[in-house]
Amino acid sequence: xxxxxxxxxxxxxxxxxxxxxxxxxxxxxxxxxxxxxxxxxxxxxxxxxxxxxxxxxxxxxxxxxxxxxxxxxxxxxxxxxxxxxxxxxxxxxxxxxxxxxxxxxxxxxxxxxxxxxxxxxxxxxxxxxxxxxxxxxxxxxxxxxxxxxxxxxxxxxxxxxxxxxxxxxxxxxxxxxxxxxxxxxxxxxxxxxxxxxxxxxxxxxxxxxxxxxxxxxxxxxxxxxxxxxxxxxxxxxxxxxxxxxxxxxxxxxxxxxxxxxxxxxxxxxxxxxxxxxxxxxxxxxxxxxxxxxxxxxxxxxxxxxxxxxxxxxxxxxxxxxxxxxxxxxxxxxxxxxxxxxxxxxxxxxxxxxxxxxxxxxxxxxxxxxxxxxxxxxxxxxxxxxxxxxxxxxxxxxxxxxxxxxxxxxxxxxxxxxxxxxxxxxxxxxxxxxxxxxxxxxxxxxxxxxxxxxxxxxxxxxxxxxxxxxxxxxxxxxxxxxxxxxxxxxxxxxxxxxxxxxxxxxxxxxxxxxxxxxxxxxxxxxxxxxxxxxxxxxxxxxxxxxxxxxxxxxxxxxxxxxxxxxxxxxxxxxxxxxxxxxxxxxxxxxxxxxxxxxxxxxxxxxxxxxxxxxxxxxxxxxxxxxxxxxxxxxxxxxxxxxxxxxxxxxxxxxxxxxxxxxxxxxxxxxxxxxxxxxxxxxxxxxxxxxxxxxxxxxxxx
Length: 700
Fold this sequence. Notes:
Elements lengths: L2 H12 L4 H6 L4 E2 L10 E2 L20 H6 L3 H24 L35 H16 L10 E5 L13 E2 L3 H8 L1 H8 L5 E4 L3 E2 L2 E2 L4 H10 L4 E3 L7 H4 L7 H11 L13 H6 L5 H18 L19 H14 L1 E5 L12 E5 L7 H4 L12 H8 L5 E5 L20 H9 L3 E7 L27 H12 L4 E6 L7 H6 L2 E4 L7 H9 L34 H4 L17 E11 L2 E10 L5 E12 L9 E10 L4 E9 L5 E2 L5 E2 L3 E7 L5 H7 L4 E4 L3
Parallel strand pairs: 3-5, 4-6, 5-8, 10-11, 10-12, 12-13, 13-14
Antiparallel strand pairs: 1-2, 6-7, 9-14, 15-16, 16-19, 17-18, 17-22, 20-21, 22-23
Helix pairs in contact: 1-12, 4-5, 4-13, 5-7, 13-19, 15-19
């Protein structure tokens, strides 16, 4: 539905409501107004990596894994699947009169915050540390969710606006201080892109303050939305408005907090501060009927654009049977294949099944469903753990021996055991009797995630260090000491330093949280049925380098992320091996409308077919305001058969060639140098891949 038409319908409807009715509609659990034919609606739904918290649904890899695909077309397709399954579930639930939480069509996804610090537990929900990658993947997911039909297929949400990336424990009282340069260069670009280019339907404010202002009532942030032409609705994070008086102390009570939020443009309250307090705020003159009705008009405009006010839409006939259909599951598997990152391989992979009679599968994440999921997940009707995937892959070919090895973080698996490491003897026995070992370690959502969602003894949400817990380190080192060919499969949502074990292992495959079918995906990759092709969307640091970085509470970008990090990373942003051997052999640039057109020839000199990701980086040489290191400005995933080459053309937008000065202005400065490769143009990437990016001199 045309937004102008929807807005006029909303205005006409809201004008018929009493002030009490209008205020009620600004709650996430909006009640029905029977006299006006308004059905109840619950605005709270989640679809971070598939429809979440609402029963059965197709589950993709966690968002950080989706970032590792560097594949916007795939992400858009996944967004469409989320919208399709969301519509199917909405149609079915509504038919039974169920309009409860997680049953609506407004999905509070994607999370486009910047994963600036590897300790942040919620970083797994993001697309990574880079503004360009985050913007492109975020736009794609929004396009997929919202569709291009007459009505919105679903409503997407850009969150958490803005400057939000931990620490989790402080978020209800914390003031994230960021300079004008960091705001314009790092923290705001993805939000601007989703508003301007993807026309995202809603924006969610963060819990914290930004430069002194609570994000759900920030004159600066709300002003940015107006500047960008935002036409949708603004929603608070859940119970964030309560933080105004309880955590930030910018107001004295709930009535003042409700008034402050609605006056600044927060239309929808996820929480209860608006409930019964907004009416009082109007009566006390702290806000106006006009402000409250304006917020309601924004919300009903969205409801009309979704076609859920009785109009009927092209999506009403989507049947429930599309949920977890084979087509959707296949796309989730594709996402898994493209997301896993091969960090190391001395030739052990792919596994040669003709030489393996017994394979050992060891580790606390080997048979863990939880390690497949990540947080904000749905419920799959079937899970395939890594252990099960390997058992299926080797069925009739080899014996599979298994051992949990250790607990994720406790010193013993069985509380009645007299001694620590009570599964170590079994793990070593399995290794001794195996021709090859798959060691599956890492974390899960109980160890990293959102405040209150986790329950471990290490701080419960953020990480204190980049090393795995001591029991896992002991397990890895002792199993590796057996001397059998060993691949470590790492399941985690953030940067991990495997330390000594990482150096000794023959191969390391990063699976992230790979989704419900992750075990099949990883088994197929280990056996070479598919070549790994994911690229790191975050920098992997050595644990010792945490001391070189700014404090976790420091939001400056100094020595953070690949753009500003001055040290040698463990594994660089943009890095990932394949079973092929691809490199850029030629690159040229020429001026084009709106930027620079880069023509790249990439060749696979290896013996295996594979996907690759061509990456273009820019450096403004001689500029005092450019990031310390070249920055990503364009990328494209390509399919490369063994021994073949392919030409691809990538456009670098003119805006990406500018740098940001201390006042937050984008300026043309320095001599532009572009680099084309299958990773960053840095020494560490060259060392790990054996290939050097091609430098191109270019002027916009």
